[in-house]
Input
Amino acid sequence: MGMKGKRVLITGASGGVGRATALLLAGMGSRLALQYFSNKASIDSLMEEIDGRIEEEGKEEEERGSNTIIKIKADVSRYEEVKAMVDRVVERFDGIDSLIALAGYPMHREVWFADPLELTDGMLDGPWSVDLKGSYNCIKAVVPYMRRQGNGSIVLVSSTPAMVGDAHGLAYTLAKASIIALTRSLALVLAPEIRINCVALGSISTEANMRGYDEDQVSALLKDIPMRRFGTPEEAARAIAFLASDDASYITGKVLVVDGGEVRV
Ligand SMILES: NC(=O)c1ccc[n+]([C@@H]2O[C@H](COP(=O)([O-])OP(=O)(O)OC[C@H]3O[C@@H](n4cnc5c(N)ncnc54)[C@H](OP(=O)(O)O)[C@@H]3O)[C@@H](O)[C@H]2O)c1
Output
């Protein structure tokens, strides 16, 4: 995949899928801006691991360290913070080739399993403001720069319940379904210079996701997955990197489902 030298902003880089995506792209020689929200320890260990890995692979000095990889703290639900983050990335890297928007509101079991007809405004607002509005804010901030350059790629993240519905997690499902609508709608607006796609992930074995289920729930979920296992963050990362890369140069407005065959649509 041709991601060498590409200037990529990854939101949610301190999370499980974000980390795997950052490691994959760092190995391909991308220049990375890694956004985190509250988990400084996670982003710091990721930065260290990337530096370590690159060093081990014996790459050139100038490809390492702060010139290649930067971390930025931001709340993606707040446009002014997103704008400041994107401005900083562009200033540092002299442009931006890809936005990979993975930031997602943390799963809370009591909200996930709440009666879908009893959701409060607060329950509905979390995924809406971080997953959906956060993605929108990032797009709004990067597009003027990408348009000026005459190219760019954007990858968002949705989820399989957004495609087929789910009796649980309605607030999350609504936000993730809107991300598909956002992808399809903006593909029409951003072409031909900028491509926008999303991955719809099934069950991926990140720490955050595994925390949400007990053993019985995991067994029940596995019965519905033809591959009989959860996907790994690395498998999600490869699909994301593909859509961000020039290998997907004729693909826009699409949803790439990464779910071990669970959803058949
Ligand atoms: N894992 C799955 O099975 C699965 C399935 C379908 C879709 N997805 C989606 O894939 C994405 C990554 O999933 P994951 O399992 O890697 O989740 P995760 O480990 O919980 O990561 C979530 C990321 O979002 C960041 N974040 C949370 N609130 C934020 C805010 N207000 N502003 C900016 N960043 C914020 C977190 O930052 P801090 O940790 O620094 O606070 C973290 O980096 C999410 O959007 C998720 O909904 C995951």
